[in-house]
Write a structure and sequence with these properties.
Elements lengths: L17 E14 L2 E8 L2 E7 L4 H6 L7 E10 L12 E12 L16 H6 L1 H4 L3 H23 L3 E2 L17 E3 L7 E3 L5 H9 L4 E9 L11 E10 L3 H20 L8 E4 H8 L13 E4 L20 H5 L2 E7 L7 H12 L9 E5 L5 E3 L7 H10 L7 E7 L1 H18 L10 E5 L4 E4 L4 E4 L12 H6 L22 E6 L2 E8 L4 H10 L4 H14 L7 E7 H8 L30 H7 L8
Parallel strand pairs: 3-5, 6-9, 11-17
Antiparallel strand pairs: 1-2, 1-4, 2-3, 4-5, 7-8, 9-10, 10-22, 12-13, 13-16, 14-15, 14-16, 17-20, 18-19, 20-21, 21-22
Helix pairs in contact: 4-6, 4-15, 13-14
The structure holds aspartic acid (ASP).
The site of aspartic acid (ASP) has 9 residues, from β21 and β22.
Length: about 600
């Protein structure tokens, strides 16, 4: 037997017990004639004490960091207790030991605050995984998975596997492709999600499906994306949007309870996509804090149901006059910002990532006066009126951005988040859920001069808008005119779940009638032949009694990282890829043997 106990298990109650431990040597410390070793395994660290009698053996076979060691001895209550670790009351007085395997000197220290940089730790990920900090993240991931499975099982969901070697599923990204040896010149695509399969399972009558499943998307990797990532993928039939929202709020609340011990009893807030864009400049707003955008001016077609209050800023100031959009945010308690601070903020909005030309501010002084960078153009009374429109109080600082609609709205959203971050309003221990509803069904791709599905092409329009969809031609003569097209206003039965400003899940009620699905494909520019080639199986299935259905998928890695209070999903994936999509440990992707090319009947001829 290699061990009787783990390195995290022994307490004072085990006093005088004869035990055997096995683990990795964390540290070796010599004190005169005795030697202390911290022995580590997955469960913790136990201090081993080697008395003088073992010195000859220790000298003959010295211990080093990360050696695999088996030690037998008696549990002893320590005089000098270590309150920082659970086993700190005891130590093991070693009577016998055996080196089970040696270790080369590790390239970085296996400690919480390691000296290893990111690349080095990724190269030696198997060593990095020994570190407590990483282990805790994987434990959290496992707990989230367990909680998910328990909840879904209790609610009659069935875990059904779907294939990885498939044909393209359109989630809007590029496919990874796999050549088929048995079908030379033909390729499988790896699933961007199991979307079509879960819909087919509904047609088959498995009315509640789930899978914690890998998805593959060949995207340019922005900061925190992985080419393969994990989704909690779910689908239900005989449901309306409301049923789905309730079921999956329940799931997330259950995860909060099981994993974080948080009773999330509040109702999950809801807002429409339009409200989110209008009030936060963002379709995944962080609602842990206010600071909503105040739209002083925007193009009428953008949010037709909302009113501009542009009369307030009408005047001599050319920047506001010429701008498509003017957006203000009241920042609480910052009226005393110095010149240096406002200059720094101006520089911040001018950074290429934000891309604004400048920043206008109004200081709402505590004494009731108003001071602004545009004093020249607006009377104090006007400034006061503008500030009041933004909801600013005495002591607040109003920041105003002006420019083209899309850029300005995005920049305002970034500025709002930045200010909240600086003011400590984005607390990692506070969790706030939100449903964003009624997304547009289509998006216009100006480059391609065509409509694309905002979610994916299986998403159903709002029932009241099905007529509009059926009866309008998708053709746009002139890209600039597209917002006037009836399609622009069609809303989808689609929903996203947002947690602290992150989209953690998204889904929709699906189209389940062949005619409407064909119309949808046509709207996206697919002729009958292409529809048949790509989705003939689904259109066919819709002819054999497809039930009304809908679903959702949660980004599992992201959910774990938010619950773990980390910015990076990589920290929650055992073997992640780097930002260039490489596994630096395996050194993948890599070239393959000539023999493999031959078998595939493929000749490599790279274009550049
Ligand atoms: N398949 C979708 C996605 O990956 C989720 C869904 O609609 O259920 O985003």
């Amino acid at each position: 037997m290699y061990r009787t106990h783990t390195c995290g298990e022994l307490r004072s109650a085990h006093q005088n017990k004869q035990v055997t431990l096995a683990g990795w040597v964390q540290t070796v410390r010599k004190f005169g004639s005795i030697t202390f070793v911290d022995l580590r395994d997955r469960y913790g660290i136990t201090q081993l004490l080697f008395e003088e009698s073992l010195n000859a053996q220790l000298d003959a076979s010295p211990l080093g960091r990360e050696f695999v060691l088996q030690a037998t001895g008696k549990v002893n209550e320590r005089t000098n207790k270590n309150p920082n670790i659970p086993t700190g009351d005891i130590e093991l007085i070693v009577s016998e030991f055996r080196i089970l395997n040696k270790s080369a000197v590790p390239p970085f220290t296996i400690q919480d605050d390691t000296d290893g940089g990111d690349d080095l730790r990724m190269k030696y990920r198997y060593l990095d995984l020994r570190r407590n900090a990483v282990k805790k993240n994987l434990e959290l991931r496992y707990a989230v998975g367990r909680s998910t499975r328990n909840y879904l099982h209790e609610n009659n969901f069935m875990d059904i596997e779907t294939p990885f070697l498939i044909k393209s599923t359109p989630e809007g990204a590029r496919d990874f492709v796999v050549p088929s040896r048995m079908n030379p010149g033909q390729f499988y695509a790896l699933p961007q999600s199991p979307q079509t399969f879960k819909q087919l399972l509904m047609v088959s009558g498995y009315d509640r499906y789930y899978q914690i499943v890998k998805c593959f998307r060949d995207e340019d990797l922005r900061a925190d994306r992985q080419p393969e990532f994990t989704q909690i993928d779910c689908e239900m039939c005989f449901v309306e949007q409301e049923d789905i929202l309730n079921m999956f709020e329940g799931l997330v609340k259950r995860i909060f309870k099981d994993v974080k011990g948080i009773d999330y009893t509040e109702t999950v807030e809801r807002m429409t996509w339009e409200e989110a864009m209008w009030q936060y400049g963002n379709d995944k707003p962080d609602i842990r804090f206010g600071m909503k955008l105040c739209n002083l001016k925007f193009p009428a077609h953008t949010f037709p149901s909302k009113e501009n209050i542009s009369s307030l800023i009408a005047g001599e100031f050319a920047v506001f006059n010429d701008a498509e959009t003017v957006i203000a945010i009241a920042i609480p308690g910052c009226s005393e910002y110095s010149r240096k601070q406002t200059d720094e903020l101006t520089e911040w909005v001018k950074r290429p990532q934000i891309g604004m030309k400048g920043l206008v501010f109004i200081k709402c002084n505590a004494d009731g006066t108003f001071k602004s960078s545009v004093d020249k153009f607006y009377s104090e009374e006007k400034l006061k009126a503008i500030a009041e429109a933004t909801g600013a109080q005495a002591g607040d600082l109003v920041l105003i951005l002006a420019g083209a609609e899309e850029r300005t709205r995005k920049a305002s959203s970034e500025l709002r988040l930045e200010m909240a971050q600086r003011l400590g309003m984005r607390r990692p221990d506070e969790f706030k859920l939100l449903w964003v509803l009624d997304f547009p069904l289509f998006e216009y791709d100006e480059e391609g001069n065509r409509w694309v599905a905002r979610h994916h092409p299986f998403t159903s329009p709002k029932p009241s808008q099905i007529e509009t969809m059926i009866n309008n031609s998708p053709v746009i003569e002139n890209a600039a005119e597209y917002l006037k097209h009836p399609y622009a206003g069609i809303k989808a039965n689609a929903y996203d779940m947002v947690l602290n400003g992150n989209e953690i899940g998204g889904g929709s009620i699906r189209i389940f009638q062949r005619e409407l699905q064909e119309k949808m494909f046509a709207a996206l520019g697919m002729d009958k032949e292409e529809q048949q080639h790509k989705f003939g199986f689904l259109l066919g299935a819709f002819e054999y009694g497809a039930p009304p259905h809908g679903g959702i998928a949660f980004g599992f890695d992201r959910l774990c990282s938010i619950l773990g209070g980390s910015e990076s999903i990589r920290d929650f994936i055992a073997f992640p890829k780097n930002n260039a999509g490489r596994d630096v440990m395996l050194d993948a992707p890599a070239s393959i043997d000539a023999k493999q090319f031959d078998e595939l009947q493929i000749r490599l001829d790279l274009k550049n």
